[in-house]
From TrEMBL:
<dbReference type="GO" id="GO:0015031">
    <property type="term" value="P:protein transport"/>
</dbReference>
<keyword id="KW-0636">Prenylation</keyword>
<keyword id="KW-0449">Lipoprotein</keyword>
<keyword id="KW-0378">Hydrolase</keyword>
<protein>
    <recommendedName>
        <fullName>small monomeric GTPase</fullName>
        <ecNumber>3.6.5.2</ecNumber>
    </recommendedName>
</protein>
<dbReference type="GO" id="GO:0046872">
    <property type="term" value="F:metal ion binding"/>
</dbReference>
<keyword id="KW-0342">GTP-binding</keyword>
<keyword id="KW-0479">Metal-binding</keyword>
<keyword id="KW-0547">Nucleotide-binding</keyword>
<keyword id="KW-0460">Magnesium</keyword>
<keyword id="KW-0813">Transport</keyword>
<dbReference type="GO" id="GO:0005525">
    <property type="term" value="F:GTP binding"/>
</dbReference>
<dbReference type="GO" id="GO:0003925">
    <property type="term" value="F:G protein activity"/>
</dbReference>
<keyword id="KW-0653">Protein transport</keyword>
<comment type="similarity">
    <text>Belongs to the small GTPase superfamily. Rab family.</text>
</comment>
Length: 202
């Protein structure tokens, strides 16, 4: 069809203020860490990124929430239209971790039931100030059947992997009627873990 428009996968970053949502997006988009808080930015903006997975381009339109997260109420329309949600906490902040349940409750209430959710424990570089053990993140993720990894917007560890895993899952869903074997995000992440030979960040 001449008017065929490639679908843009609506991806939203959610989580408490200060967990590093904007920094994570900047790291993924520009490959750098700009220290300092962006939390003064109120509103919602997006960044377009194209991720190539298995020779297929996946267009991600990534929305960065700001300001609204303080009230833990991202406009419900954003949830409804989301194809993927990256839910962040800060491994040095117990409250940001404790709030994950409330975020998930809201997500389950307003988002599509087939939305791709990934839980990220950010600031993995701040090991001396760690308040949440990796196992606690894993346990919570298992309880909600969502994939999990620890990231650092500062060093960049696992940032690309998180978005690529989500893109792979979205692509797999778009072509699920083809003969290609179904992509399994949990298995993919496990395989990457084994490949890197290091699991301290997962
Ligand atoms: P947001 O409110 O969730 O968008 O969080 P920001 O991206 O504004 O980050 C809040 C603060 O945490 C800023 O001072 C960032 O520089 C810092 N920060 C964000 N991510 C990381 C990280 O992975 N490691 C470290 N050490 N600092 C981070
Ligand atoms: Mg922000």
């Amino acid at each position: 069809h001449p008017l065929h428009v490639e679908r843009s996968e609506q991806t939203i970053l959610v989580g408490d203020s200060g967990v590093g949502k904007t920094s994570l997006l900047v790291q993924f988009d520009q490959g750098k860490f700009i220290p300092g808080s962006f939390s003064a930015t109120v509103g919602i903006g997006f960044t377009n990124k194209v991720v190539t997975v298995d020779n297929v381009k996946v267009k991600l339109q990534i929305w960065d929430t700001a300001g609204q997260e303080r009230f833990r109420s991202v406009t419900h329309a954003y949830y409804r239209d989301a194809h993927a949600l990256l839910l962040l906490y800060d491994i040095t902040s117990k409250s940001s971790f404790d709030n994950i349940r409330a975020w998930l409750t809201e997500i389950h209430e307003y988002a599509q039931s087939d939305v791709v959710i990934m839980l990220l424990g950010n600031k993995a570089d701040m090991s001396s100030e760690r308040a949440i053990r990796r196992e606690e993140g894993e346990r919570l993720a298992r309880e909600y059947s969502v994939p999990f990894m620890e990231t650092s917007a500062k060093t960049g560890v696992n940032v690309e992997l998180a978005f690529v895993a989500v893109a792979k899952e979205l692509k797999s869903r778009a072509i699920q009627h083809s003969s290609e074997p179904k992509f399994r995000i949990h298995e993919y992440i496990e395989a990457q873990k084994e490949k890197s030979g290091c699991c301290s960040f997962f």
